[in-house]
Amino acid sequence: MADSTDFVRQAIAEDVAAGRFGGRVQTRFPPEPNGYLHIGHVKAICINFEIAKEHGAVCNLRFDDTNPTKESVEYANAIEHDIRWLGYDWPKTLYASDYFEALHGFAIKLIKAGKAFVDHSSAEEISRLRGRERGGEDSPYRNRSVEENLALFEKMCAGELAEGECVLRAKIDMRHPNPNLRDPTLYRIMKATHHRTGDRWKVYPMYDWAHGQSDSLEGVTHSLCSLEFEDHRPLYNWFCEQLEIETPRQIEFARLNMTHCLMSKRHLLRLVEGGHVKGWDDPRMPTVAGLRRRGYPAEALRDFVKRVGVAKYNSTVDHRLLEFVVREVLNRTATRRLGVLDPLKLVVTNYPEGEEESFEAQDMPGVDGTGTRQVPFARELWIDRDCFAEDPPKGWKRLAPGWEVRLRYACLVTCTDVVKDASGKVTEVHCTWDPESRGGATADNRKVKGTIHWVSAKHALDAEVRLYDHLFPESPDEGEGDVLERLNPNSLTVVTAKVEPSLAAAEAGTRLQLERVGYFAVDPDSAPGKLVLNRTVTLKDGYKPGKPPAPPKGQGKQKQKPKPKPAKPAAPTGPAAELAFEQFAALDLRVARVKTAEPVEGADRLLKIGLELADGEQRTVVSGIRAYYSPEALVGRQVVYLANLKPRKLRGVLSQGMILAANGPEGEAILLEPERALPDGAKVT
RNA sequence: UGCCCGGUGGUGUAAUUGGUAACACAGAAGUUUUUGGUACUUCCAUUUCUGGUUCGAGUCCAGGCCGGGUAACCA
Fold first, then answer.
1. What pLDDT does A478 receive?
2. What pLDDT shows up at residue A559?
3. Residue A456: its pLDDT value, please?
4. Spatial separation of the C-alpha atoms in residues A259 and A362, rounded to whole Å
């Protein structure tokens, strides 16, 4: 998997190999500072920064700040912070507004070349004249003289004309099949204060007019963007060509979609403004700020993007892939602690009242050289309510009346009694402990039903724990009406948990695992004496309550198998498969003798087989029959060998042709053998 | 509707550019385990359809079907 790359990387590698752009590579991430970054942006960020890194090249952050009415420094600062948090850095923050002067010069150049004009048509009129499916019509102002256009444009720039009075347009082709080339607008009059250039400009460039030239001016070689800009590429190229500046190569890829997620700025804004979440950094939000607060490590986000890949197909990634990468990072980085979310009192009846001791617990069990801590133990403990069952189902591996379980890191306890309230709800579980089992193991090494987590009632800390669920169903866009009607009303549950005292001084941002429960991050709302945890993600749960523990195997719906495969040739699905009889003549089939056979490293289905055809030369063939034939059973045997195949590499081994085999009734491969006794090297017909 | 772009398992990406459909996630089964976690093993695909070219097609050609983008004085 390491040796295949996506189409963007391939295209760039080809350009480098061809010496295009002088063999240079430079990318950029060009957000508009009008909102917060979300997981979809993370994809674009990683692609641009990682590709640059792979080529030892620069990737700049450049703000596409061409519309002062929508943009602000607050957004810009948040964006910079998020990208740095993701682990990327860049030499200098750039702005499209840095190029306003240059763009102005470019416009004059275009006007002088007769390729731009000032249009006094209204927005509606321009839209109408642009036409729909068929081509449009020329604007009545299209044939103004260069001098008049120049004068008018200077008036626009000087603020002498009113907003909306006119625009500067390129003069391309109103009948062009691509509507983007039907005299696109370059500048509109906007008397707004820009967050960087102040009141210097009364006109602001449109995206198309600013983007390509900005790329070109700062030396970008590959302008990577999302699919919806595909139709803009001809315009991007046209501008650079007309202005006689280097034309960077724009390559488009699909943006990220994820199940249970709404990614558009508009919807995210509605969630915030409608009070459906607590803010842009609400841990349920797919924003970088939200994911960070939730406890998702930056490393996991980067890995996620790597695993998602880059393509042009409009896909939707399963949210569970994100959870997987988060768990993977957290599993090896988050220290373990004990805590219960739904406390149920457990009394160790044979433990002396008022006494206490402590047990050593590992911070990273299974990892040598990591720390330990002491966890206090006493007569009264808290366990999680779902670790006890009065009437345990089959396969239950936790506590139940009469059962013995291990308290993690502590000892073995046996349930002797249950206390209930008037409604029948269990309020206390009584156990006895085995003092010989201190540390969790006994001399007789007896097996117990399972291991559960606990915390000493007297020593436990209260913690506010926020449990999160998806904001939306799997496919929020499917269904009638407003998507907000599909908001999950239970996306946030707050509980008061009991956690071990070592968490008292945990700092905001700390990530930990509550053993057997999940991964958590200390929320910035925490204060001394007030611990607030966000559940980042649950542990993968192998326990399926609904499932019978020992499913009657064999039949059932899972294997709608016994569909007999047609006995078509297996291993070489190519040439020998279903050939007309006479076509056999074209195949160079030979009898060959196996001289050597050995497994191919790193491929558990492949064998590397050395063949001899009596011509003194040895041929090597790689065949996927390892599951059915041992190397020993093959050596010395005659096989049918297809000699006139183009050699190809399999797992790093050059395979010269293939050995013929057929599918057996179970789908296994059966090697074909010459029917009659033939000498090695003989042609099979 | 015009133009543009796509279509490989439940999901996402591969396939040395025409030569065993691979990797990961999810799901299922099992082994190990002081976390029902981790680790490990196994299973899970008529490559959208129909024709064509070819010894050989996921890959090339033609047509169909389906999906997405776009038609701003937004980016």
1. 86
2. 28
3. 98
4. 37
- pLDDT tens digit sequence for A474-517: 999 988 889 999 999 999 999 999 999 999 999 999 999 999 99
Contact A230, A203 (CB under 8 A): no
| Catalytic, out of A200, A265, A547, A568 | A265
CB of A583 lies under 7 Å from some atom of strand B: yes
Q: Which residues of A368-395 are buried (b: 16+ CB within 10 A; e: fewer)?
A: eeeeebebbbbbebbbbeebbeeebeee
- Active-site residue, selected from the candidate residues A9, A28, A32, A535: A32
Range A595-621 burial, b when 16+ CB lie within 10 A, else e = eebeebeebeebbbbbbbbeeeeebeb
Which pLDDT score is estimated for A369?
A: 81
State whether the Cα torsion A201-A202-A208-A209 is positive or negative. negative
Residues A364, A511: Cα–Cα separation, whole Å: 13
CA triple A156-A162-A168, angle to 5 deg: 40
Nucleotides in chain B near protein beta carbons (<7 Å): 1-8, 10-30, 34-39, 42-43, 55-57, 67-75
C-alpha torsion angle, residues A587, A590, A596, A601 (rounded to 10): 10
Distance CA(A349)–CA(A340), nearest Å, equals: 21
Give, in order, the Cα–Cα distances in Å from A39 to each of A282, A304, A472: 14, 10, 16
A316 CB and strand B closer than 7 A: yes
With distances taken from each CA to the C1' atom of nucleotide B13, the closest residue turns out to be: A309
Ranges of residues in chain A with a pLDDT under 50 are: 1-2, 547-587, 601-605, 646-652, 663-668, 685
Quickly give A566 CA vs B46 C1' distance in Å: 11
